[in-house]
TrEMBL record:
It holds the Pfam family HDOD. This is HDOD domain-containing protein. It comes from the Bacteria. InterPro entries: HDOD, RNase_Y/CdgJ. Gene3D superfamilies: Hypothetical protein af1432 (1.10.3210.10).
Length: 279
C-alpha cells in the first residue's frame, strides 16, 4: 500500500463514520453531547466538568486567563469557572480535550513529537482567532476559538492512525494537503458534530482563500493560522505565509493597525494559549 492508498483507506473509513478513537474519547463525546443539549444548565455543566479532572483543570485555567478574567480576580472553583465561561466556551474546551486525546494513542516518538507540535500550533491558532475575532473581524470570539481548536483535527486523526498505516508519513507534506486533509478532515468533523458555520470556515481554510482585513470566520481562522508562531508540522497551507513572513502582515483597523492590536493583545494571547496547553 502506498501513501495515497493509505489516505484513501482512512478517508473511506472516516466517510462511513468508522473512526477508531481511543476509548477515553467516548466519555468526552458523551459530555459534548450533553453540553449541546439546550436544557443543559450551568449547575449540570459544572457537575459534568468536575467528573473529568483534565477538563476541570483546563476550565479553571481558561477562566483565569487574561481573555476571560478582566477583573483580575483569580478563582479555584469549577462551578465559578463554568459560570464565568458559560456553556458555549465549555463546548470548545471539551472539544480541545477530544482533539488532544487523539494523540494519546501514539507511541512512536517521531509521531508523538509531531502530534505535540500540532497541538501547540492548534492552541496558538485558537487563542489568536479569539482575539482577532473580538478586536478585528468582529465575528463571535467563542466560535472563532472553537474553529481554531478543530481546524487540524483531521491531522490529529491521521497521526493517530499512522502506526497502522505508516505510509501516510512518507512523501511530501503537500500530498497530505492535496489528498488526505479534506477527505479525512470532513469525516472527523462530521463525527464530532461540528456546527455547519465552523465546518465551512475550516473548508475555507483548506482552500486557502481569505480577505484582508478578515471579514468572516474563515478569514479569521486563516489569518490566525498565518500569525501562529508555531507552524503545523504536517504541511504548508495553500496561500499561507511562512512564520517569518507572517510578522509583516499589517493593515488598518479603525484608528489602529493589526500590528498595534496584536501587540496590545500579546499578554491575552499568551495567557489563553498557555491555558489551552495546560495538562
Amino acid at each position: 500500500m502506498d501513501r495515497l492508498e493509505a489516505f484513501k483507506a482512512i478517508a473511506a473509513q472516516a466517510g462511513r463514520g468508522e473512526l477508531t478513537f481511543p476509548t477515553n474519547i467516548d466519555a468526552s463525546i458523551k459530555l459534548q453531547r450533553a453540553l449541546n443539549d439546550e436544557n443543559c444548565h450551568i449547575d449540570l455543566a459544572a457537575k459534568l466538568v468536575q467528573a473529568d479532572p483534565l477538563l476541570a483543570a483546563r476550565t479553571v485555567a481558561i477562566a483565569n486567563s487574561v481573555a476571560y478574567n478582566r477583573s483580575g480576580m483569580e478563582i479555584s472553583s469549577v462551578k465559578t469557572a463554568v459560570q464565568r465561561l458559560g456553556v458555549r466556551t465549555l463546548q470548545s474546551l471539551v472539544t480541545s480535550v477530544i482533539v488532544r486525546q487523539l494523540g494519546t494513542k501514539i507511541r512512536n516518538p517521531l509521531l508523538k513529537a509531531k502530534a505535540n507540535q500540532l497541538w501547540e500550533h492548534t492552541a496558538h491558532v485558537a487563542a489568536l482567532a479569539q482575539v482577532i475575532a473580538r478586536r478585528v473581524s468582529h465575528v463571535d470570539p467563542d466560535t472563532a476559538m472553537f474553529a481554531g481548536i478543530v481546524h487540524e483535527v483531521g491531522g490529529f486523526y491521521m497521526l493517530s492512525q499512522a502506526e497502522s498505516y505508516p505510509e501516510v508519513m512518507e512523501g511530501d507534506p503537500e500530498e497530505w494537503t492535496a489528498h488526505g486533509e479534506v477527505q479525512i478532515g470532513r469525516g472527523v468533523l462530521q463525527k464530532l458534530m461540528i456546527p455547519e458555520n465552523v465546518f465551512k470556515a475550516v473548508e475555507a481554510m483548506w482552500e486557502g482563500m481569505r480577505a484582508l482585513p478578515p471579514e468572516n470566520l474563515g478569514d479569521t481562522l486563516l489569518l490566525a493560522n498565518d500569525l501562529s508562531p508555531i507552524a503545523s508540522p504536517l504541511h504548508a497551507r495553500p496561500g499561507a505565509t511562512s512564520v517569518a513572513a507572517a510578522s509583516t502582515i499589517d493593515f488598518a483597523v479603525g484608528d489602529g493597525t493589526l500590528a498595534s492590536i496584536m501587540e496590545e493583545s500579546a499578554e491575552e494571547v499568551k495567557s489563553l494559549t498557555a491555558a489551552l496547553l495546560h495538562n
